[in-house]
Specification:
Radius of gyration: 18 Å
Structural class: alpha/beta
Helix content: 40-55%
Pfam families: DHDPS
Family: Belongs to the DapA family.
Order of helices and strands: EHEHEHEHEHEHEHEHHH
Strand content: 5-15%
Largest sheet: 8 strands, parallel, barrel
InterPro entries: Aldolase_TIM, DapA-like
CATH topology: TIM Barrel
CATH architecture: Alpha-Beta Barrel
CATH superfamily: Aldolase class I
Oligomer: single chain
Distance between the termini: 32 Å
Strand order of the largest sheet: 1-2-3-4-5-6-7-8
Keywords: Lyase
GO molecular function: 4-hydroxy-tetrahydrodipicolinate synthase activity
Number of domains: 1
CATH class: Alpha Beta
Shape: globular
Length: 314
C-alpha cells in the first residue's frame, strides 16, 4: 500500500453542488485541501455525508478523482483516500471497488447488503465480505452502520473473523458500541497512536466518542463533524497522545455537542453551518430539503460553540 492508514481522524467529506445540483468540483477540491491542512489523517468520499446514494456511478468517480487531484496538487499526495463502495450485490460492490481504484482511491469502505434482510444470515455476510475482499484491487474497511442497512448490526465475532482476511484492513463502527469496539481492538491487535500493532484500523464512526475509542485501544475516528471542525477533532487526538487527559475531556465535550448538532440535523445542517461560518456549503440534492432562514439561524446557534473552538486553534 502506497498510502498506509495511520491512527487519527478521518473525515467523510460532504459533496457540494451548484444551484442546479450539478457537482461543484472547485468547492469539492478546496474543501478536501482545507481538511488536509487541518491535519486529518485521511479523507473518505462516497460516504453517507457524501450523498453517495444521490450520485450516479459516473459522478461518484468524478468526486473521488477531483478529491485526489486537489490533494495531489497541494502536496498531500501521500494522504489516503477511502471510497465508499457499498452496494446490494457482490458483483456491483466489486465493480465499485475497481472504479474507486481507477478514480484515485486507496481503500474501499463497504456496508453489508441489507435489501433482502431476512436472507442475510451471519454466514451470508461473512461470505459477502470475503468474496469482495478476494476480488477487490484495494483493501477493504468494514462499515458497520445499522441505521443505514435495515438494522443489520455486525457483531464483534463477525468482524473479528473477517479481520483475518489479508485484504480487510479495518472497520468503522457507526453503531456507537464502545464495548464492541473494545473487543474488536483487542482481538485484532489494532493500531493505536503509540503502537502499530497488527495495522488493523479499528475506527469509531463519529467524533462524540473519540476519546473513548482511543482509551480502549482503538485507532481513531471517521467523523462527519470533521467537515465543520477538523482542527478541533484532531486536537482531541493530539491531547490524548500527549497525555493531557483533562484537557482532552474538556474538548471532547465540546466536540460531542457539535457532533450531536451534525447528527440530529443531518447533511443539510452541516452544509448550512459551512455556509454560515465558512462561506461555502450550499444545497443538498433533492429530495433532501432546503434550509429556511429561520432554520439556518437555529443551525448556526447549534454549531456556534464548536466553530468558536475550531477558530481558536492555530
Amino acid at each position: 500500500m502506497n498510502k498506509p492508514l495511520r491512527p487519527g481522524v478521518y473525515v467523510p467529506t460532504v459533496v457540494f453542488f451548484k444551484g442546479n445540483e450539478d457537482l461543484d468540483h472547485d468547492t469539492i477540491g478546496r474543501h478536501a485541501v482545507r481538511l488536509a491542512k487541518a491535519g486529518v489523517a485521511g479523507i473518505a468520499t462516497q460516504g453517507s455525508n457524501g450523498e453517495a446514494v444521490h450520485l450516479t456511478r459516473q459522478e461518484r468517480q468524478q468526486v473521488t478523482r477531483t478529491t485526489r487531484k486537489a490533494l495531489n496538487d497541494e502536496g498531500f499526495d501521500s494522504m489516503p483516500v477511502i471510497v465508499g463502495c457499498g452496494s446490494q450485490s457482490t458483483r456491483e460492490t466489486i465493480e465499485l471497488c475497481r472504479e474507486a481504484l481507477a478514480a484515485g482511491g486507496d481503500y474501499a469502505l463497504v456496508l453489508p447488503p441489507s435489501y433482502y434482510k431476512p436472507s442475510h444470515k451471519p454466514d451470508t455476510i461473512l461470505e459477502f465480505f470475503k468474496d469482495v475482499a478476494d476480488a477487490s484491487p484495494v483493501p477493504i474497511i468494514i462499515y458497520n452502520y445499522p441505521a443505514a442497512v435495515a438494522g443489520i448490526d455486525l457483531s464483534s465475532d463477525v468482524i473479528g473473523e473477517l479481520a483475518k482476511h489479508p485484504n480487510i484492513v479495518g472497520c468503522k463502527l457507526t453503531c456507537g458500541n464502545t464495548g464492541k469496539l473494545t473487543r474488536i481492538a483487542a482481538a485484532t491487535g489494532a493500531a493505536t497512536l503509540g503502537d502499530a500493532g497488527s495495522n488493523f484500523m479499528c475506527m469509531g464512526g463519529s467524533a462524540d466518542f473519540t476519546l473513548q475509542t482511543l482509551i480502549v485501544g482503538g485507532s481513531g475516528v471517521i467523523c462527519g463533524i470533521g467537515n465543520v471542525a477538523p482542527k478541533a477533532c484532531v486536537k482531541v487526538v493530539d491531547l490524548f497522545a500527549a497525555g493531557k487527559l483533562a484537557e482532552a475531556r474538556k474538548l471532547q465535550a465540546v466536540v460531542a455537542r457539535g457532533d450531536w448538532a451534525a447528527i440530529s440535523g443531518g447533511i443539510v445542517s452541516t452544509k448550512s453551518a459551512l455556509d454560515t461560518y465558512f462561506g461555502y456549503g450550499g444545497i443538498a440534492r433533492r429530495p433532501l430539503p432546503r434550509v429556511s432562514k429561520s432554520e439556518a439561524t437555529e443551525c448556526a446557534r447549534d454549531f456556534q460553540e464548536i466553530v468558536e473552538l475550531e477558530r481558536s486553534i492555530s
